[in-house]
Design brief:
Helix content: 55-70%
Order of helices and strands: HHHHEEEHEEHHHHH
Strand content: 5-15%
Oligomer: single chain
Shape: elongated
Number of strands: 5
Number of domains: 1
Largest sheet: 5 strands, mixed
Distance between the termini: 67 Å
Number of helices: 10
Strand order of the largest sheet: 1-2-3-4-5
Length: about 250
Amino acid sequence: MKPLNLKDVTKYVEENIGTFHQKRIAGLTDLKLKRVIAKKNPYLFKAKYILTAQDIIKSLTDAFISSQEETIFGDWLEGLAIFINGKVYSGRKSGIPGIDLEFDRDNIRYIVTIKSGPSWGNSSQIGKMRSDFKTAQKTLRTSNSKLNIIAVNGCCYGRDNNPDKGDYFKYCGQIFWEFVSGDADLYTKIIEPLGNQAKERNDDFIQSYSQMINKFTKEFADTFCLNNGSIDWDKLVRFNSATIVPRK
């Protein structure tokens, strides 16, 4: 184990955080209004008494963007965790399907699947992770049958007060970052470098976001509003939910 130099973490963040912001903006550029409408519940907007095109657009896109950003930033944090672990324990990105990180510590081979937060999957997705762990253990033991392997589901934020899941461990938040770095306080130390130039980078995003809201509001009004300016709820619901009969 090598002690972690926080300057290395700061440098990594400064050099790579731009990727997250670039993907945020790219996600806006690729977004299509009808794609978003097709994935959201139109009845909810009526029940909430939303009457303007812009309010619907903001509600639709903000929910979509929030989900997209969670995925993008989760992937980015995975890269940060692997980088930190590489500095401390010489860990590496795993080449085994379903496994994100491998490293050795105290004569134990750890295989780690990294997720953003603790509530990341349903029972079938967790079952798939368990299956991936078992497959990885078999793969690694083909070259060393006596290898002591421990599987870990690491989550970048949150907590789980019952980490022992029987066939794997689930480490969240502070425990996860200490697990990959050996530093119990790392989970708070990484906050500061993440904020470097955040305002400047977010200004670019806000500009793209504002343009998208204006563009989508106009498109929505042209497509789903009546001549008097009110929302054509019948047309909106039909677009979202009507059965498309395939041509024979």
